[in-house]
Every structure is written in C-alpha cells, then in structure tokens.
Amino acid sequence: MAHVSFDGTRHETLREESVLDTLERAGVQIPNVCRSGVCQSCLMRARAGQVPLAAQNGLKDTLREQGYFLACQCQPEDDLEVVLADEDAVGEIPVQLIGVEQLSQSVMRVTLEPQQEFEYRRGQFINLIREDGLRRSYSLSGCAANTDGILELHVRHIPGGAMSEWLMQAGPHQQLRVHGPYGSCFYVAGKTDQALLLIGAGTGLAPLYGIACDALAAGWSRLPRGAEFAASRAGAVLRRGRPRSGRCRSARCVARFRSTRWRRGARE
Ligand code: FES
C-alpha cells in the first residue's frame, strides 16, 4: 500500500481510500466540502511522489505543473509527501469576535476583527479556529465599503453544530484564530466588460455577494439591472435586495426566483 506523508507523519492508505480519507482517519482536518472533485476546497500539493492524473481533473495547467491535486479524488499508487495548498502562502492570525447578527432564521453574519494584517479577497475562504482547536471553513463575504478591515462570514446555524451553535451563544471580544485565505474564486480587476455568472444557494451566496461587491467597486461596467440574492431552500434566504452600490441602488429588479420553495423562503 502507498503511504502519505503529511506534517512529518507517514500514514498508510487503505484500499480505494483517498488522501482525504487517509488523513481524516488519522485525525488530520483537511478543508473539504463536496468530496466529489467539484469545489476544489480540498486542494493539496505533492512535494514528492507521482500524483494520479484523475486527481488533477479540472485543475488549471499551472496548478498541475506545480503538483497540486484534489485530496478527495486522489487514490495514490505511489508514496506521496503532501502539504496543504499554498501552505507557504497562507498564515494564521488571531482575530476578535465583533458581533453575530441574524440575517434570516438560519443564517447569521459573523464579523471578526483581525489582530494582525490579513490580506484576502472576498470569495476566498478561511478556517475559523476556536481556542480548543475546533475549526470550520467559511467563505469571506461583505462589501469593502461596509466592512473595511473587518472579516465578514455568513454562517448557517446548524442546531447542535459545534461551531455555529457556539457562535450563536458567544459574546463579543472572544478570541479566535483564522487560517488562510484559501481558494482562487474572486473578482480579478481589470476586465470591466467581462460577463460574470454567479450561481449559489444558501450560505453559498456569501462569497458571491462579496465578489459582486468587489466587481462593482472596481468599476465593473456590465452592471446587472438588478438582482435578488436568494436561496433555494425555505428559511435560508440570505439577503434580499442588491449589493450596496450607488450605481446599483436605482436599478430595476429583473431576477426573480419564482419556485414555490423560493416564495416560501422569501416570506420569512
Ligand atoms: S472536497 Fe470538493 S473537490 Fe474535494
């Protein structure tokens, strides 16, 4: 059986087990969402060893060249030495909890003040780490004009969920840590006439909201006449209306979600 080396420890893989499975079995927490090769949140990099081609499906050529792969899709045939993607580029900083505000019945806005300089782009995601080591991945949202220097997360409240339940109860000034940022889904300035297609649901709308705000702030010229930010599940409506932008404020709303489920959610 092949072995996976991570953070100085060598782990034996089991039959038909992915690198993600192997590391999780060993108690290592690796960011992941879909476990099916779609979201790329489990991106890792091989420092040594041959990565199976199937583990690099959907990655840019530049990433493949550097040995990046999707941990959930990687069943190694040879020994690998792996690190988290951009491990050298990301960092960990202390943050202070500023507030928790209910956006809907199931989604809350969590704001954090970095205690050190922290460079990120809205649309990327971070690992939020509690004092006892509990960590969860959340996307970075918000608008530059509203959250200058403040990190904004949209967190779905899961009854009994270790982190979301704790955040609901936690008072301000709690000390946490943020590790990241991760991901390359963000607005790249300089292509102001480029079309944008942003599709999401539930708290998956959070990074899209941030990306839309950054695009508007950067002078994106293909403004929508309007949009509603909606979720596909009742009770998960994140925010109705438009990104706060002077150019968008008078826009006519043209995007409506008319499914029964949307109407149910919209009333809440
Ligand atoms: S967890 Fe989504 S691609 Fe691996």
Automatic annotation (TrEMBL):
Domain of life, source organism: Bacteria
Residue ranges of domain FAD-binding FR-type in the record: 90-188
SUPFAM superfamilies: 2Fe-2S ferredoxin-like (SSF54292), Ferredoxin reductase-like, C-terminal NADP-linked domain (SSF52343), Riboflavin synthase domain-like (SSF63380)
All residue ranges annotated as the 2Fe-2S ferredoxin-type domain in the record: 2-88
Stated name of the protein: 2Fe-2S ferredoxin-type domain-containing protein
One annotated GO molecular function: oxidoreductase activity
CDD domains with a match to the protein in the record: fer2
Stored Gene3D superfamilies: 3.10.20.30, Translation factors
Pfam families: FAD_binding_6, Fer2
